[in-house]
Amino acid sequence: MKRFGYLFLIFVFSNSSCKKGEFEISNLNGNKIGILGHGGMGISSTYPMNSVESILNCLYLDSDGTEIDVQMTGDGVLVAFHDENLDGRTNGSGIVHQMNWSEISGVQYNSPIMQGYEVRSLRALFTALENADKIKGRRFSLDCKNFDGNFGPESLEKYCNALYEIIDEFNAVDNVILELQSDVFIDKVRTERPDLTIFVFQDVEKALEKAINDQLDGVVASIDNITKEQITYAHAHNVMVTLFNTQSKQRNIDAIEMNPDFIETDRLEHLISVLK
């Protein structure tokens, strides 16, 4: 009886685990899902998200690229950092958009397992990628954050110019996706740089409407906030879809079955193992 139970468990496990080639993928990305790390290796990694080390290790695993959180300092330097405030996650203190880069440069993450890793500017991050020959053929989805409640035309101009400068400096027009939330931000980039790829990051219904009406490239959505039917609708209107919030193996599988074009995952190695 124990032997039968043991064999039954093996049968169930082997038939419930997904293997390469089991998915019938239909999307606008050549029927292939682009595998992107979430800030590199993801939220559960021993490397801090958006750090050079996390991004490089993500790419060394043969991912297709990564999402990177971006925001701008008071003096116009783009920083690869997720939170509005340095307090808590680093040994620094202050609100990023209210500080100059000279006040942030050298700040380190302060978790016991993350000590020694520095918060980097986006330029420093791309320099490290270029030195490692990890830009060509990869996709970098820049989540362009803005926590400044007084963000006006001058700040927007500064933010856009800083993005354009880095993209052009590293010849990354074909490698970068800009995840943008504000209609004003989207419209400015679309008008000034029609060669850049824009994914709308808003409420799903609003994002789909904006992307379709303005003929933008795609939308970004949490796996919890969009349906497979909405993704099919997006594809029918030539709009690509990136999914995020896949923090487990099962959520990776759930995301794959929705047929997106890209997945920003926190379980990178698992997603690679089932798709490559």
Low-pLDDT windows of residues: 1-16
Count of alpha and pi helical runs: 10
Please state the average pLDDT score. Answer: 93
Q: How many structurally independent domains?
A: 1
Strand count, sense and closure of the main sheet?
8 strands, parallel, barrel
- CATH superfamily membership: Phosphatidylinositol (PI) phosphodiesterase
Could you explain the architecture of this structure?
- The structure is a single chain.
- The protein is of the alpha/beta class and 276 residues long.
- It has a single domain, classed as Alpha-Beta Barrel (TIM Barrel), CATH 3.20.20.190.
- The chain has 10 helices and 10 strands.
- The protein has an 8-stranded parallel beta barrel with strand order 1-2-5-6-7-8-9-10, surrounded by 6 helices.
- Strand 6, helix 6 and strand 7 form a beta-alpha-beta unit.
- The longest helix is centred in the middle third of the chain and has 17 residues.
- It is globular.
- It starts with a helix and ends with a helix.
- The N terminus is likely disordered.
Compact description:
By secondary structure, the protein is α/β, with parallel strands linked by helices.
Map the helices and strands:
Elements: H1 2-16, E1 34-38, H2 52-60, E2 65-72, E3 78-80, H3 101-104, E4 120-121, H4 122-131, E5 139-144, H5 153-169, E6 176-180, H6 183-192, E7 197-200, H7 204-213, E8 218-222, H8 228-236, E9 240-246, H9 249-256, E10 262-265, H10 268-275
Parallel strand pairs: 1-2, 1-10, 2-5, 5-6, 6-7, 7-8, 8-9, 9-10
Antiparallel strand pairs: 2-3, 3-4
